[in-house]
Design brief:
Helix content: under 10%
Distance between the termini: 40 Å
Order of helices and strands: EEEEEEEEEEE
Number of helices: 0
Shape: elongated
Mean pLDDT: 95
């Protein structure tokens, strides 16, 4: 059974940095990932896209990131990272890892990890 596991969350002061990790466990070696992404809850919407990386090497960020975050992924190892710099109190949220697969496999979600930014 596929499990998506996030790590690296915690509490930091404004202006600080955190590095989130996402690891996919339990998948078959023939299951290939199309894209991996980070999401967080949004007021008035279900969630906001924080950052996404595709197997072709393309990346995209939510407008609120404004150059502060960097996403990287190793699709062969099925791991993804999010380097978050210059964190702000409004970045406080539960960050969830999302995996989209090639083929018919359903999308996979992690349980989420808390990031708290406060002084």
């Amino acid at each position: 059974q596929v499990q998506v596991v996030e790590s690296g969350g915690g509490s930091v002061q404004p202006g600080g940095s955190l590095r989130l990790s996402c690891t996919v466990q339990g998948s078959d070696m023939n299951d290939k990932i199309y894209s991996m992404a980070w999401y967080r809850p949004a007021q008035g919407r279900q969630r906001d896209l924080v950052a996404i990386a595709t197997y072709q090497g393309n990346t995209m960020y939510g407008d609120f990131v404004k150059g502060r975050f960097n996403i990287s992924a190793d699709f062969a190892e099925k791991k993804m990272y999010l380097q978050m710099n210059d964190l702000r109190p409004e970045d406080t949220a539960d960050y969830s890892c999302f995996v989209r697969w090639f083929g018919a496999r359903d999308d996979s979600w992690g349980l989420g990890i808390q990031v708290t930014v406060s002084s």
